[in-house]
């Protein structure tokens, strides 16, 4: 799978495009009332699981659950599937945990192929080194848990776009969808009313997905 980026992200000096996400709450899979993330705005939320690895091979969560005899649910964390295993024992199933805090390229590439043309704005955690040091003109928004800086998508890619920099929240100008990855999350959420986008994500064999509904 190509690791080349289809979007670059740069600092943006206004908070106005982000106000619809206020109060900038952490993107939990479900809130305390059992509502899927962004379900008050969108009909459908899809959870996209970040793969584990064994050497160069991707390892799906359902494979791990099957091996350990655990159950993969819409709210599962990866460590819950493994159970009480010592940190240095992987049973030849996986040797690298799913990435946290941002979609790995195995997830990001399919999402960018689908959404890059429309993507316009984002919020990125200020704790990322490149952002905290270099983004001097970006506006800040403070959520209950973390502070983010505003970003804008650049479709005229620079010569060396950062292959890892991706906002924690990103969306198009018409706000018909939103993608989010929590800073400590091992999965990425996509919320939308667009059935074609939902179908494309759920049918993409490169992705392991769970369709969320009210608990």
Protein traits:
215 residues; alpha+beta; two-stranded antiparallel sheet
Kindly describe this structure:
The chain has helices at residues 61-68, 78-82, 105-115, 129-134, 195-203, and strands at residues 8-11, 44-49, 52-54, 57-59, 119-125, 140-142, 147-154, 169-172, 177-180, 187-192, 208-212. The chain has 215 residues and is an alpha+beta fold. The strands form 2 sheets. Strands 1, 2, 5, 6, 7, 8, 9, 10 and 11 form a 9-stranded antiparallel beta sheet that branches. The longest helix has 11 residues, at 105-115. The relative contact order is 0.29.
Counted by DSSP, the helix tally is 5
Alpha-beta content class: alpha+beta
Major sheet summary line: 9 strands, antiparallel
Low-confidence stretches: none
Number of strands: 11
Gyration radius, in Å = 17 Å
- Order of H and E elements: EEEEHHHEHEEEEEHE
**Relative strand content:** 15-25%
The separation of the N and C termini measures 35 Å
**What number is the mean pLDDT?**
90
Bin the helical content: 10-25%
- Shape descriptor: globular
Give the topology, please.
Blueprint: E1 8-11, E2 44-49, E3 52-54, E4 57-59, H1 61-68, H2 78-82, H3 105-115, E5 119-125, H4 129-134, E6 140-142, E7 147-154, E8 169-172, E9 177-180, E10 187-192, H5 195-203, E11 208-212
Antiparallel strand pairs: 1-7, 2-10, 2-11, 3-4, 5-7, 5-8, 6-7, 8-9, 9-10
């Amino acid at each position: 799978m190509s690791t080349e980026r289809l979007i670059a992200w740069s600092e943006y000096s206004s908070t106005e495009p982000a106000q619809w996400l206020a109060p900038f709450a952490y993107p939990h899979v479900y809130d305390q009332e059992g509502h899927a993330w962004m379900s008050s705005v969108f009909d459908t939320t899809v959870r996209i699981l970040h793969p584990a690895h064994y050497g160069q091979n991707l390892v799906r969560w359902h494979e791990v659950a099957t091996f350990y005899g655990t159950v993969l649910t819409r709210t599962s964390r990866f460590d819950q599937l493994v159970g009480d295993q010592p940190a240095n024992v992987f049973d030849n199933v996986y040797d690298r945990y799913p990435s946290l805090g941002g979609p790995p390229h195995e997830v990001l590439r399919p999402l960018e192929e689908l959404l890059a043309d429309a993507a316009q704005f984002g919020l990125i955690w200020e704790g990322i080194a490149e952002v905290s040091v270099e983004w001097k003109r970006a506006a800040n928004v403070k959520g209950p848990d973390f502070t983010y800086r505003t970003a804008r998508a650049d479709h005229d890619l620079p010569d060396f776009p950062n292959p890892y920099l991706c906002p924690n929240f990103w969306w198009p100008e018409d706000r018909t969808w939103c993608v989010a990855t929590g800073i400590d999350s091992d999965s990425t959420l996509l919320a939308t009313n667009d059935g074609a986008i939902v179908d494309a994500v759920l049918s993409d064999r490169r992705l392991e997905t769970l369709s969320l509904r009210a608990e």
